[in-house]
Structure prediction request, 124 residues.
Amino acid sequence: MFLTISEFNQFFAILLVEVSVIEKDEHFAFGVTSGKDPNYKYPSEQDYLKDYGNTLNYYTERLQKNTENKETKICVIGHTHHPYINTEINDGKHIYIDVGAWTAGRSDFVVITNEEVGICCYKR
Prediction:
């Protein structure tokens, strides 16, 4: 029997509720705190660098060493649940964007146009 990730997640969530390990939460996902209550706070740069500095360093180094495609200027990642943007990577040659997430009470998304770039938050 094969299950999709969401079916697998739902199966274990129901099981954990039945054995009273967790309370029922319609917004639950494994490894993610409840998304029931919106979270509009953005982490400080210091907190982001402490928790995800290794990710930032890895991707900005890849941008800098990208010899195959010199036109790549923006790196967009997600799923850290901590939105962050830095437009001064490699002396302003590159942009690093961590979209954050659309779970854990967050509704972050990125908008990139020819004129601007930004992380937006959908207010529920």
